Amino acid sequence: MQIFEAMEAYGHEQIVFARDERVGLRAIVAIHSTVLGPALGGTRFWNYATEEEALVDVLRLSRGMTLKNAAAGLKLGGGKAVILGDPQKLKSRAFFHAYGRVIEGLGGKFYTAEDVNISALDVGHMGEATQFVRGDLCKCGDPSPFTARGVYMGMKAGAKIQFGTDSLEGKQVVVQGLGSVGYALCAHMHKEGAKLKVHDINASVVERAVQELGAKAVSAEELLTTEADIFAPCAMGAVLNAENVKHVKFQLVAGAANNILADEATADALKERGILCLPDYIVNAGGAIHCGMKLSEGVYEADKVHAKIDAIYDATLKIIALAKEKQSSTDRAAQAYAEERIQSQLSLKPL
After folding, report:
1. pTM, rounded to two decimals
2. Nearest CA among 218, 18, 168 for reference residue 100
3. How would you classify the pairing of strands 14-20 and 25-33?
4. Predicted local confidence at residue 351, as pLDDT
5. DSSP line for 209-277
6. Beta partners for residue 84, in sequence order
């Protein structure tokens, strides 16, 4: 991969590669945009097959954070970080101190928080070495419940359009990924009477969902072919592509995972089949709102945060209406909406 060509293609400002051999740290921080403010985005810890795979992931994820923060009305840019390696073997307090020093070295250009395989406790350990973190247990707290709440509200808005009612009672929902966000989302849906089908690589959390939420376990092979009304991807990205969406049976896609579509061709393929796909960075913005409101507004007011997250319902309806008006996919409509907000904010800045 030609790195500068990739940066140009995605529109990135800066990429930082960091290592600390004493603790086994290898990390990439991608700052996509600071046009609206400091970049905010989580840190993902994943055992990538190759360094190029990690780089592509962080480029896509960080661009998505710019769109997410802009669409949510936050005065923040977008960034993301990935740590390469096995979290089960590498995690320690010293490890996150080393990583925290990397973030501190960026001088406030990038704030980070939880993502895949990073907990609020891990962020707390980072915070012992840097002030530029959000989502630890001592500051604004774990963003996972807020992300789940936003996805739930977006899903209800999508259901209103696709099924004629925003009630999820009796709806069959297949959920991929039962991490902190995925499980909390399942709890919301179960409370409303949805029928859950779940999958996760961790068998114990699947069993927990079966016991506590009356869910039915499905295999990885069944995820995209089982009978369901709604698909909620809450694990890794690029789960849907132009080929596999030909065989799915659900009518609505709404999940917490980032970059759930492999490419724009997938968005078009879903649209052609009449499947409503809710853009991930619109519905999963609850955690970013929770972590970013103090940075964006200078103060954290719980009531305003909760109201802004619940307003994801209305934002989702707005994107669906915009897509219908422009006769485009919801993916393209969401991108246009976010980019328009960036441009509108730019026009207010003094030269």
Report:
1. 0.89
2. 18
3. antiparallel
4. 44
5. HHHHH--EE--GGGTTTS--SEEEE-SSS--B-TTGGGS---SEE--S-SS-BSSHHHHHHHHHTT-EE
6. 46
List the 25-33 sheet strands across, edge first.
14-20, 25-33, 77-84, 39-46, 110-113
Active site residue 80: yes
CATH number of 3-63+77-141: 3.40.50.10860
Integer Cα distance of 209 and 75 in angstroms: 37
Would you give the end-to-end CA distance of the chain in angstroms? Answer: 36
How far, in Å, CA of 118 to CA of 115, rounded? Answer: 5
What's the distance, CA 89 to chain centroid? 25
Q: CA 293 → CA 78, 114, 140, 147, 283, distances in Å?
A: 14, 16, 10, 14, 17
Give the C-alpha separation, 82 to 27, whole Å. Answer: 6
3-state SS string for 151-165: HHHHHHHHHHHHHCC
Inter-residue contact 128 to 155 (CB < 8 Å): no
Q: Which residues pair with 41 in a beta bridge?
A: 112
CA–CA distance, 204 with 7 (Å, rounded to integer):
40
Ranges of residues in the chain with a pLDDT under 50 are 350-351
147: which strand partners?
none
Q: Would you state the CATH architecture of domain 145-283+315-338?
A: 3-Layer(aba) Sandwich (3.40)
The length of the chain, given as a count of residues: 351
Residue 49 neighbours by CB distance under 10 Å: 8
Enumerate the domain spans of the chain. 3-63+77-141, 145-283+315-338
Task: Kindly give the pairing relationship between strand 25-33 and strand 195-199.
Answer: unpaired
- What is the residue-averaged pLDDT of the chain? 93
Pick the catalytic residue from 80, 109, 156, 308.
80
Q: How far apart are CA 15 and CA 80, in angstroms?
A: 10
- Rounded to whole angstroms, the Cα distance separating 42 from 115 reads 5
What is the Cα–Cα distance from 329 to 270, expressed in whole angstroms?
8
Predicted confidence at residue 226, as pLDDT, reads 95
